[in-house]
Amino acid sequence: MLEVQKMSVSYTGKQLAIEDVSFKIEQPGIIGVIGPNGAGKSTLLKAMLNLISHQGEMTFNQKKLKHFQKEIAYVEQKSAVDYTFPITVAECVSLGLYPNKRFYQRLTKKDWQKVTQALEAVDMLTFKNNQIGELSGGQFQRVLIARTLVQEAQLIFLDEPFVGIDVVSEEIIMELLHQMKQQGKYIFIVHHDLSKVVDYFDQLVLMNRQLIAFGNTEEVFQPEILAKAFGQQLIVLGGV
Hints:
The chain is an alpha/beta fold.
């Protein structure tokens, strides 16, 4: 069970980016975090992970974050990634193994086999020796998902993973995420494309600085509820 309790974040000490957000997730699944631009979706993820100053806390199985940090995989927005960093695809994926290593431990042959298997799963093995800067946006996003696979984390946080990527990459990633859900993982995805919400998510966190609604997708993804977050903006349901 994962619980977020009274999460608030303020910028410049006054303006609230998110205010008093609380919800509880009882079982593994894929959870979409949706809302209009500026709603605080990415801020919520960062606060949950203690990456920014905040009030409130996230607990997992009634334990505070410090007790399960190795169980967390976080993929931030692509705009925050340095594509010029001199690292190969295989080396990038191997970074997911280090949370479970001691600082002096080297990767073993078995570890590199895990890297190979993860790259095969995302159909990127032929690129293993390429520099990450040589990849398209969709290819690089698949590499980041492969890194998450080798980490074998229980809690996965993805911030806008489908922005600017190709359809094939998006389908590959979603198929893998559904497999990971079946393995008992909790997967949070900040997402903006409302036309795919019903197909992608088991539950939704609907935000506009405050929590507007939380629950099963079919319950939350209703015009009258969405309007509370998006106002009079155009709402796209089911691809229509």
